[in-house]
Amino acid sequence: MTSTWSVRDTGSTAEADAETLPSVLARWARTRGADRAFTFVDYRDDPAGAPVSLTWRELDDRVSAVAQWCQRHACPGERIAVLVEQSLDYVIAFLGVLRAGSVAVPMYEPSPLPGHLTRLATALADAAPSVVLTTRRHTDAVHDFLDEHDLDAHLVAVDVLPHRPGEEFRPPALSPDDLAYLQYTSGSTRNPAGVMISHGNVAVAAAQTVRVYEGTPGSEVVSWLPLFHDMGLIVGLAAPLMGGLSSTLLDPLAFLTRPVRWLELMAEAGRAITVAPNFAYGYTASRTTDEDKAGLRLDDVATFGDGSEPVVESTVDTFYARFADCGARRSMFRQGYGLAEAVLLVSSSPAGEPPKPRTFDRELLAAGRAVEVASGSTLVSAGQPVEQRVRVVDPDSHRVLPDGRVGEIWTSGPNVCRGYWGRPEAESAAVFRAVARDADGREVEPYPGCRGWLRTGDLGVLVDGDLFVTGRLKDLIIVDGRNHYPQDVEHTAENAHPAVRRHAVVAFAVSDETGEHAVVVAERARQVPPAELDRAEVAAAVREAVAAEHGLAVRDVVLIEPGELPRTSSGKVRRTTCRAAYLDGALVTAA
């Protein structure tokens, strides 16, 4: 008899079989073996794209072949790192590790991108994998990288392994409680930490994602998000697999080089589902020409999901204004909130409803109260909880706050993970199994069957049932006893002068013996040549705009070159890293 995971809460009922991703893959191979499962469109040699596909049966065979090799070279429960480029080989390698009963460490091949090598080395040293999977194309680079960092692991290229397992292969029985993989966080506010994700966590989260975006067998997902990233892994791989959806993948670089490719694949797929960070929509609108748009029809797209960072209303408006004549509608948009520790989704907006912006008094919001006004700080709703319980909690007293009060977002559900790899149990318990209390000091019950609440580290407010994310708890700029949200200051700064590059500004606070002071670091706009850049004029414009809008004095304005702001793999700016670089004197001012 098949056991079930309960995903039930007041007002909703949903059940997800306690199957694992490998067992679901085997089921699709038996029942829909000839149907297309995953496609990768390769733009490296052909600008028009060269698609390569696998059926469910082909994928199942390739996964079993990798799993059989892993069984011979690693014991159950040992870590196996996936250092594979975006491709079908990544899908095969990741699922092969899971089917073998080992613990996957989804990462990426050594890359010259800023900060990637350091984060890769840090994560691998923490995970200590006994085996590393890569491809022939990167074997030499991975070997040299492992040798340089004294990482002892058996290395193999998955694309040289047989495409079918031997007859003696027997996959181990997997339990929902077994550890499936370590999802290393992007490190936007701390060093990368390995979130321990069980087979049950990922199965529940993938099923939630399918239901939220109303996927059905035969529906298609289109994703350029990196598969080592939490959103890319769930949206591009786990959710399609769990729901029997076909998935079309492309490389992030192919998207960044020509973002209309993303939309073209969506148009070809019909009722397609996609999810991307907020910046991607503004980037696509600004980098798509009228010639690119010729013949592009988006009328049948099912969902444009927006997550991974706060949704900015102007970015949404820009995207839909640009593509309205192609059939894009605001009702296609789905905004949400999530994080790796909850295996992606925490909340999402309802299907068919346009984004829901609300404007709050900026000073009162910074002081912890959401009061609607005609002009102030506009936030877009991140929707309602997805089959879990969400509360806004005072981060110091751990008391649940009433609606309209800003606090830390806490969540509880079967998708919430067990803790951080290699960290003391007390540290994981404080984050993943916190105790919330009501105004009278009584414990607030977590989700049925769950132990405590996950502290997200994000600030938010509940208003009329909708969750509005206001910022990161650690990113608040506190000067002269007043709170300022960095994203508000960044928005003002990027509009203060044409020489400031849009969506490439960081604001943070620094301390000295006289107190806290605000600093703004911004990239130079590409259309402004370095020789024509008047740094004093730009700095004065930024200071004046921030002072007028926020009553905040900016001590220093630093202009750096385009592309030099440190970012996470999903494109979010790394404020903590930037602040550390500023304090170390490592930021080079634009000439």
UniProtKB/TrEMBL annotation:
Residues 475-589 form the AMP-binding enzyme C-terminal domain. One of its GO terms (molecular function) is ligase activity. This is Fatty acyl-AMP ligase. Keywords: Fatty acid metabolism, Ligase, Lipid metabolism. The keyword NADP does not apply. It comes from Saccharopolyspora hirsuta. SUPFAM superfamilies: Acetyl-CoA synthetase-like (SSF56801). Residues 26-421 form the AMP-dependent synthetase/ligase domain. One of its GO terms (cellular component) is plasma membrane. One of its GO terms (biological process) is Actinobacterium-type cell wall biogenesis. InterPro entries: AMP-bd_C (IPR025110), AMP-bd_C_sf (IPR045851), AMP-dep_synth/lig_dom (IPR000873), ANL_N_sf (IPR042099), FAAL/FAAC (IPR040097). Belongs to the ATP-dependent AMP-binding enzyme family. The keyword Protein biosynthesis does not apply.
